[in-house]
Design brief:
about 90 residues; mainly alpha; 1 helix
């Protein structure tokens, strides 16, 4: 009877060890898959962010060009208004 119990304990320990090894390998494989998926998503996110930054940079440059031209246009309008006033007065 003691021999049967010893054999059962040994079988249980071997089974537990094999199960533990299987779980460790399974978890490691799953972890590597998750890391690969996260790296892929990060790369997509970084590419998307880069595109958005480039678009915003282009828009800012357009705005800056427009902002540079506004004072010139204002001055031209001012001159045109003075000419119109002079013409209306009969000068």
């Amino acid at each position: 009877m003691v021999r049967v119990m010893n054999d059962a304990i040994i079988v249980a320990l071997i089974t537990a060890g094999a199960t533990l090894i299987g779980v460790i390998f399974s978890n490691r494989s799953m972890q590597q898959g998750i890391i690969a998926e996260m790296e892929k998503r990060l790369a997509v996110h970084e590419a998307s962010t880069k595109i958005r930054i480039e678009e915003l940079t282009r828009e800012v440059r357009e705005h800056n060009e427009f902002a540079k031209r506004i004072p010139v246009l204002e001055e031209q309008i001012k001159v045109a208004n003075h000419r119109i006033e002079d013409l209306e007065r009969g000068r």
